[in-house]
Amino acid sequence: MRTLLFLLLVIGGAAHAAQTVKAHVNGMVCAFCAQGIEKKARALPQTEDVYVNLKRKIVAVQVKEGQTLSGDTLKSLVKDAGYDVVQVETVDDTTAGIRARMEHE
Amino acid sequence: MGDIGPNWREVFINYTVTARDAIGVSHTTMRSDDDRESDHLTEITYTRLLHRWNLPEAQANLWFMGGVGELRGADHEADSNWGRTAVTPGFQADYETTRLYLSALYRLYRASSVNHDYAAVRAGFAFFEPHYEQTQPWLIVEARSMYGLSDRPEITPMLRLINRSYFIEAGVNNFGQPRCNFMLIF
Questions:
Q1: What is the pLDDT of residues B80-89, one digit of tens each?
Q2: How far apart are CA B13 and CA B185, in angstroms?
């Protein structure tokens, strides 16, 4: 059942060809830390959804259709919240797809 | 935020001005073990993150915290009341991973002829790896001393529940007295 759900989410995510900016954040070790980043990311006008994974230190921001979000904008947002981004990439996936993949591994 | 115990009761509100600075107001009630003395401190506080080390699997911080306010005291045995200006500068260092927490705090609580300096160390661990959306339970043990209020260090094991917007800690200290800490983020 979990595998089926995982596959549906992955296929569904790819079908929409949504863009998500994914950052690896050093220092993000607790929910209190991460909620500040999530709050700022959700406040961006381009944001469709935000996914946070504390164990992997990942913040993923899904961009609204037809809009763009640069890696530098997310980097700067995380830096302003007091943390360091060590890697940022834009992927063709939804936050739901990323969540399913990360939590399945 | 609050720290509610028999000898030390502190309630404060902080407003985060920047990622490194917060200002606030605080009210602290300090009571001696023998219940002879009780002091009430109302102060304006400033908290500064002096340095943060963002490590791949951890975070470490050095904080300054301080306040200025009025300390009102009562010596119940001498039946006297007084009010004095108090200053409360202090430093905290902490280290935290998703499963481990360590901290040390030393803060002066001084007014003319009054010294209630406060020292605390904390260590704790989480029972499991956190999921951001779920509440994470921790076991935290705190040892603290409050100069001029208690001759013995207070040791309190506490269960901490931490979520995105709150944490709450509750336990019973080595004198058999209940304690509770809480913090809410808006």
A1: 788 999 999 9
A2: 10
pTM: 0.86
Query: What would the pLDDT profile of A17-27 be if each residue is shown by its tens digit?
Result: 789 999 999 99
- Read off φ and ψ for residue B66, nearest 5 degrees: -160, 165
ipTM of the complex, rounded to two decimals: 0.81
Spatial CB neighbours of B169, under 8 Å, sequence gap ≥ 6: B140, B158, B159, B160, B161, B179, B180, B181, B182
Chain B neighbors of A75, CB-CB under 8 A: none
CATH number at residue B31: 2.40.160
Q: Which of A26, A31, A55 lies closest to B54 in CB terms?
A: A26
Domains of chain A: 18-95 (3.30.70.100)
Residues of A in contact with B59 (CB under 8 A): 27-30, 33
Using the Cβ of A4 and the Cβ atoms of chain B, whether some distance falls under 8 Å is answered with: no
Full domain range(s) for residue B49: 2-184
> Do A25 and A38 meet the contact criterion of CB atoms below 8 Å apart?
no
Residues near B121 by beta carbon (within 8 Å), at least 6 away in sequence: B103, B104, B105, B142, B143, B144
Contacts of B176 (CB under 8 A, 6+ apart): none
Contacts of A105 (CB under 8 A, 6+ apart): none
Into how many domains does chain B fold?
A: 1
Q: How many CB atoms lie within 10 A of CB B18?
A: 10
Instruction: Report how far apart, in Å, the C-alpha atoms of A4 and of each of A100, B57, B102, B154 are.
Output: 11, 32, 42, 53
